[in-house]
Input
Amino acid sequence: MRIMVVCFTCCGGNYQRGARDCTPRGDHRHPSDYERRYESERIETSRFSRVSYHSNMHAHILIWIIPFTLIGGILSALVASIMLLFPEKVRTALLPRLVSFSIGALLGAAFLDLLPEAMYAAGPERVQGIGLALALGVLGFFLLEKLAFWHHGHSTGEVKTDMHPDHLRQKAAGTRIVIGTGLHNFLDGILLGASFLTDIRLGVVLSIAVIAHQIPQQVGDISVLLVAGVRRGRALLLSALSGATMVLGGIVSWAFLAHAGALIPYVLAITAASLIYIAVADLIPGLHRHEGARLSVVTVLLIASGIALITWYNRS
Output
């Protein structure tokens, strides 16, 4: 009597096997040892290819991070030093307009790019966590500023000589600015790196916002260093060195966050908190010192143009 069983090992239940051999209904046959070994090697090769692809992808992102952090940290210091060569009257008229534009770029990047991207990456079930990260980020930046670990030297054209009348206090202020700005730029580099890891387009948008607010910040920092008695060349060097920490922050972000994708949505929310805090708590109050209906109209138009630039880049 012929015993028929179903072959599930290699036939998936589609072929019948006798007591000793496998009898296919068509031209089916069992794979040989060579074929099994070839298939195993093919799978391993595909796994290696995927690993190589991801490694190349991460290296490609690093190629974007380094130049944009260099532009944001060091080139902005060079531009700021050139602006300090302008007559005070020209600088006083130009810087508030640059600050106004940077406010729009910061708010546009935060609300039109970073927050939507963070919520989309987190998913509906973690949206509240994104909101909590945003709120805690604003609170954290407020505390850092109060503790004098994060200094924003944004200026609207005036050199604040009345802040530290004593020369020793001026030197202490200069040291605090270099250290605080270095930490600030390092944090900016981490946030830029997280944005580029999420999307190249998002990283470029954030870079535009960072560069827009870095220039007036560097002008203010260099101005305070000059008031503290630092020579112009040394002030520029210190400002460039503090800006170089942005590159370091970008590399650190690339090295660690590339393998911690679950954290990136929350880092994006903290990045948005940083931009919102800078615009609302630091830049806008400085513009209130300038009165006049004509200047207010120009300020609103420049803020709107900063938002429009981010919107245009997103749609292009």
User: Anything to note?
Assistant: The chain has eight helices and three strands. Helices lie at 33-83, 88-122, 127-146, 167-198, 200-227, 232-257, 264-287, 293-315.
